[in-house]
Specification:
about 35% helix; about 210 residues; Rossmann fold; 9 helices; about 15% strand; 6-stranded parallel beta sheet; single chain
């Protein structure tokens, strides 16, 4: 059976349960063989992170102790220049030539995919899993994606690349921006991110006003 490997990137500034809990639910739903969590070094689609690469990596290391099935993958931090997704996927495809590689993203990111660097190559290198929030209006499927849609995990696992699966998962109303603002003003963030990450942020004065 073909291995199914999920790839989930972001700035993780900081990592929080809005990232981790849906990803954990997705791993169980897919019975994924591996989940790689990829912190971006120089995110091309958003402002530069406030925490350093080393701090964000350490926060992820602490957070992922609660999720032993996740793999902290630092290849984007180790690569110079913008963290272009297509380069990351090329690296994974060389490493796992026969696996079902699945790039995981939210519906907002998927809506903007056509603005990404060499975006047309992305479906050639990996499948795409789009996470939608349960109970929310279904996102419009772009015309180019229609022929690539699949409806079940078995079809996804059979495909090395080019398939697109929309998955509805429970939403978690947590944002990194809100966490940074609350921590800057010494407000409570309990339950929004792992306690060990909260302690690390406070001990190192990250996000202080």
């Amino acid at each position: 059976m073909r291995r199914l490997i999920c790839l989930f990137g972001g700035t993780f500034d900081p990592v929080h349960y809005g990232h981790l809990k849906p990803l954990n639910e997705l791993q169980q739903y897919l019975a994924a063989d591996a989940v790689h969590v990829l912190p971006a070094s120089v995110p091309p689609h958003r402002p530069a992170p406030l925490a350093s690469s080393e701090q964000r990596q350490t926060m992820l290391q602490l957070a992922l102790r609660e999720y032993p099935g996740f793999i902290l993958d630092s290849r984007e931090l180790e690569r110079s220049g913008p963290s272009w997704t297509v380069l990351t996927l090329q690296s994974f495809r060389q490493q796992y030539p026969d696996a079902s590689l699945c790039l995981v993203m939210g519906s907002d990111a998927f809506d903007g995919l056509s603005s990404w660097y060499h975006w047309q190559q992305i479906p050639q290198l990996a499948n795409i899993i789009v996470i939608e929030r349960a109970g929310m209006k279904t996102a419009k499927r772009p015309e180019w994606a229609t022929e690539h849609l699949v409806r079940d995990v078995d079809s996804l696992r059979e495909s090395k690349s080019s398939s697109i699966l929309f998955v509805s998962l429970k939403g978690h109303d947590i944002s990194a921006t809100e966490i940074r603002q609350r921590m800057a003003h010494k407000l409570d963030v309990t339950g929004m991110l792992p306690d060990k990450v909260i302690d690390y942020i406070r001990q190192n004065g990250i996000y202080q006003a």
